[in-house]
Amino acid sequence: MDTVDKLRTVSEHMGLEPAEDYRPPIGNTHSGTPCGHSAHELRRPADESARYAAPAVAPALSDDKKRALGVSYAAMPGGKRIALLKTLLTSACERNCFYCPFRAGRDFRRVTFKPDEMAQAFLSLQRAKVAEGLFLSSGIINGGARIQDRLIAVAEVLRFKLGFKGYIHLKIMPGAERAQVERAMQLADRVSINLEAPNTQRLAALAPLKEFTEELVQPLRWVEEIRRTQPARLGWNGRWPSTTTQFVVGGAGETDLELLSTTEALHKQVRLARAYFSAFHPVPDTPLESRPAETPWREFRLYQSSFLLRDYGFGLEELPFTQAGNLPLDVDPKVAWAQAHLSEAPVEINRADRQTLLRVPGIGPQGAEAVLAARRRHTLRDLRDLKALGVIVRRAAPYILLNGRPPARQLSLW
Ligand code: SF4
After folding, report:
1. CATH value at residue 119
2. Those residues with Cβ within 8 angstroms of residue 167's Cβ, 6 or more apart along the chain or in another chain
3. Domain count, the chain
4. Does 384 share its domain with 243?
5. pTM for the whole structure
6. Which of 88, 233, 351, 410 has its CA 20 to 30 A from that of 197?
């Protein structure tokens, strides 16, 4: 099997994991996906990459053909969109996570790449303008540390033998060692490890061979410790990578409160850039195959709430959890808060501080900055002024005053 066929074979079973600056469209679901040496630097001249012949790849592949290889478009933290190859070094795995298509014992064709082979396969796609960045994960064979060495080796070959300077996202494997995490941070733009569940008890119902604290949380702590104690110039391109994690939502009976409590703690304690929430989708021939799929609305409300915690100054206790610890599916959590707190006490847009502006539905971090800047120049008098600043006036109008007057009667203009 050639490398392109191998990539296709991995991609057939791999639900595309949300990544990078993913914003959730409603209706998007996918199956669960896999988790994520102090080696001597292999510094060689960049032009050594010319020694590696690129396998033939059609230069202008359709989006469908790219997807079949595992290439999808991802928004980078700065907003730029790139074509990202998301693949596995091996689709074989010795672990048995209940939701995962790659779990041990499931009967399908497995493929494994050698590190050099993976690096060259990616470079050929990059040269053919099929993929610009690499998101590399793996199943686990002979322990997480051994696979982590091989993931690191792919990145080392790309960086130092083949001269690739573009985007690399490396998974940290359960069982990886601290020195390996540090090495991955020297090579990648982003590193991630999937917690899958919000705590030890819930993880046991999803992935009984994974250790929540020792194997999954500890590497996130190491990343943060390294970022805090070592100079950023040691990281790739003079920066330490950001970190993310992913949760399977609805696979273990966990509540939204549990998921968001852990997310908030990770934001604060290890500066997690963001959490991804993947609505559970049953995979045939797994222990959870008869469990119903989770609604994508739950995933969506979790994303909205995690952004409120991370970017809007909300506390966990301010989110509209039900008695059962879940978010209502039929209402935006920020609107629910505003209905309870701002309906009778609307925000005066010309006087409110940034934190208060961020409480208004329809005003995000950019909108709040734009309002503050515009206010320094002139008084904001009607909804047209706000609309010009990027505020979603239809959502904001019930909760604001403009120069002392409620603007709601002007809504018919929009
Ligand atoms: S460790 Fe679990 S989630 Fe990762 S590939 Fe193996 S079975 Fe799947």
Report:
1. 3.20.20.70
2. 76, 82, 84, 132, 133, 134, 189
3. 2
4. no
5. 0.87
6. 88
